[in-house]
What does this fold into?
Amino acid sequence: MIPQTFIADLLNRVDIVDVVGRYVQLKKGGANYMGLCPFHNEKSPSFTVSPTKQFYHCFGCGAHGTSIGFMIEYSGMGFVDAVKELAQSVGMVVPEQDDKIPPAQRAQMQAQTMALTDAMTRASDFFKLQLRSAPTAIAYLKNRGLTGEIAARFGLGYAPPGWDNLRSVFPDYEAVVLAESGLVIDRVDEDGGNKKRYDRFRERVMFPIRNTKGQVIAFGGRVLDHGEPKYLNSPETPLFSKGHELYGLFEARQAIRDAGYVLVTEGYMDVVALAQMGFPQAVATLGTACTSNHVQKLLRQTDTVIFSFDGDKAGRRAARRALEACLPHVTDNKTIKFLFLPTEHDPDSYVRAYGKEGFEQEIQEAMPLSQFLIKEAVGEHDMSSPEGRARAQFDAKPMLQAMTPTALRLQIVHALAQVTMTSTYEIESLYELSKPVAPARIAPPRSQRTQPMGLELQIMRVLVAHPALGLEIDEAALNAFQYFGAEPAERLAQLVSAAQSLGESGNFAAFAQHLKSQGDEFDGLIGDIVKEPESERDTERLVLRAAIRQVKHDALKQELSQLFAAGLSADQLGLRYRELTAQQDQLLREAQAELANR
It folds into this structure.
C-alpha cells in the first residue's frame, strides 16, 4: 500500500494542467483551462481543468478527478501504475508499503529535497547576476544570435573564473548540500588527509535545467573558448537524473501544444537558438542517449515527436538509439519522425543558412519511424540475395518484437515482407509476434448517492475543499457532531481524521484522491466543489468555525431541552444547567469577537 503522505506529496509536485495537456488540447479560459472531453464525444468543450484546485471536471459526462484519476481513466492503467508513472515524471520513487520508509526518514528526505532545491535556486540567481557583468560571455551569446530576452527566458547565466565564487552566495561553503547538489567538488589527497573544495562550474555560460514545476534541478555549462569538455553537466543527484530530464521542456510546454509537435535536438544551444529563430517547441537530451523515460515524457506532451540529428555517423548512431527507445511506446495515434540534417549543419546553423521556412520544410519531410526502421534493417545488405534478405529480417526481429501489437507494427511487417520477398504471416510466425489486446477507455461513473444536508454538508464541503482546516476541529466539535445522529457523526469523524492525516500541507487534490480511493461516497460533493470558483482558505476557516459553533450551540440547546427528563437530582440539574448555559455564552462571545476582528 502506498502511503497517503506520498500521494499528497506527489499531487503537490505534479501540475494537472501539464498532465492533462499531454493528451487533451487545452485553452485558457479565465482561471481554468478548457478542452474537449476525452471520455465522451462532444463538439464544444465542457471539460475544465483547474490549476488552483489541481482537478479536472467534465460538465457533460461528469468525469472528474486528480492527475492520478485522469491517468487511470484515460489510459486504463491501475492506481499503482498511475502513481508510478506520475512519480517518475517528477523524479520521485514510490515506496512499496507504509513501513518501507519510516516517517522520520521520509521527513529527512523531504528536508533534503527542499535544501537541494533552495541551493540550486540561489546558485541560479547568482549565475544570472554574474552574466550582466561578463562582457566575454555576453559577446559569445550575441555572436550566437541570442537576444537578452531569450537569455532571460531560459535563465542563462555565467560562472566566472575562480575556484570558490559560490562562497559569496553560501556563507557555509563547507555545507554538505553543496556537494550533494553537484555545485562543488571535494578533492581529497591520496593519503586521505587534506580536503580541497572548489566550484564545479568555472568560466562557463550556464544553462539551468528545470523540472516540470520550473524548479532548477541541475546545470549545463558551456565553455567560452576551445577548452574541454565543451559542455559540463551537473552530476546525478537526488533532484536530477539525466535519463529522465529534457532541457527546455518546461519552457517549451505551451509552444509544443500550439505547434502540435516537439522537436528533439542534441544540445542546449540548439534549443535556445531555435527558440530565438521561431521554434520554441524544441527540447534536448542532456548529454546522454535518448531513453525510454525521455520518450514517455515526450509522448505525454504531444502526439508528434520529431528527432533531429546530424547526418554523420554519430548522428545515425544516436538516431538508432532513439529509435530503439521509442519502439515500446509506439501507438497508432502517435507519430514519431527522424530528421537528418546535412553533415555540415546542426539545427542552429541550418536555420541561419536556409531560414525558418527552409527548416520547416525539413521538418515536414522528416522520415517516419516505419521508414527509418526498415532502412535500418535493410542497411547495406544485398536484397537480391537470400542471405541479404535473411539478414535484414534478422536485424528487424528485435525491433519488431519490442513494439506493442498495433496497426503500425502490422504495416511495418507488411513493408518488411515486401522488401524481403516473404509473406506477412511468415514473418509474424517466425518472430512469434503477440496479437493485439487493447483495453477500453470508459468515463468514470457518476455517483448516485444522496448527499448530506444543512450544517453537516457545509462542514463536509469546507473540509474537502480545504482539508488542512481539519486540524482546527477539536474533540468538543467531534462530540457535538453526535447532534446529527450516529451515522452522520461517524462519517464526519472519519472525514476529519482523514483530513488531519494530511497535515498542514493537505490540499483539495490530495484529499479528493484519497476519498476517491475509498469509494464513491463523496464523488457528488467533490464534483460540486470543482464547479465552484476557488474559495479563500481564510474565508472558509470563518465559515467552518461558524458552522461548528452552530452545531455546538444546537447540541447544547438539545441537551438543555432534554435536561429535565434526565432524572438528575436538583443539585446535579442546577450544576449541569449552569455548565450548558456557560458554554452557550462562551460560543456567543467567540462569535462576537470574530465578527469584531473582520
User: Anything to note?
Assistant: Residues 158 and 351 are 26 Å apart (CA to CA). The chain has 24 helices and 16 strands.
